[in-house]
Design brief:
Elements (H helix, E strand, L loop, with lengths): L6 E7 L6 H14 L3 E6 L14 H12 L5 E3 L2 H5 L4 H11 L4 E7 H5 L7 H7 E6 L6 H11 L4 E3 L9 H9 L10 H10 L6
Parallel strand pairs: 1-2, 1-4, 2-3, 4-5, 5-6
Helix pairs in contact: 2-9, 4-6
């Protein structure tokens, strides 16, 4: 009989800033997939992002810690930042090393699934984990289904998660424009952004 191992959720991203969309899909993954915990891993230097105005890694890690502090199901980790990791493959290998004896479930948005073929060594990623994919508003359902089929339906679960159309870029733009972000980010994150003067007008 195959040993049933605990399942650890992993959600990565720039978290610049972390917002309710991140928390919703982590919560959904935890509930639907029986995860023992979800690890939030801010990226050291996301290879698919424009780094010109990216907030410092230690600041993004601090915001992430604030975002998950009130939920025992979630925990932040500076693993990727500490080791200067760039590729998801290497991050998952490091997580497996730090948390042995667990099956990893990498949680991502459907937009990331559609770009998976552009990621570094996607086949190795799927050797290290299964994927939990959260739908996004305006999804091309046929394209998502085709991506699932391409990578192997047995390795990917599409979550029936609430559609939350919030993006970190939208929040940064709202702060710069002097518009409220309450209810788009956890209150502690909202306070932190205001106190540190993040995302202000250039």
């Amino acid at each position: 009989m195959r040993e049933v191992r605990p399942r650890l959720g992993v959600i990565g991203g720039s978290f610049d800033p972390p917002h309710v969309g991140h928390l919703v899909i982590a919560s959904e993954g935890h509930a639907r997939l029986g995860l023992e915990r979800v690890l939030f891993l801010p990226a050291a230097a996301p290879p698919h992002k424009d780094l010109e105005r990216r907030t410092a890694a230690d600041v993004r890690l601090e915001m992430t810690a604030l975002a998950v502090a009130d939920d025992m199901r979630f925990v932040e980790s500076g693993l990727e930042i500490e080791r200067g990791l760039v590729y998801t493959r290497d991050t998952l290998s490091a997580v497996a090393e730090r948390f042995p004896g667990r099956d990893l479930v990498f949680i991502m948005g459907s937009d990331s699934l559609l770009q998976l073929h552009t990621w570094h060594d996607p086949d190795a990623i799927l050797e290290l984990c299964t994927l939990a994919v959260a739908p996004r508003p305006g999804d091309d359902l046929a394209a998502v289904a085709a991506a699932v089929a391409r990578w192997g339906a047995g390795r990917i679960t599409v979550l029936e998660a609430p559609l939350v159309g919030v993006a970190s870029s939208q929040i940064r733009a709202r702060v710069a424009a002097g518009l409220p972000i309450r209810y788009l980010v956890p209150h502690a994150v909202e306070t932190f952004i205001a106190e540190r003067g993040l995302y202000g007008r250039a």
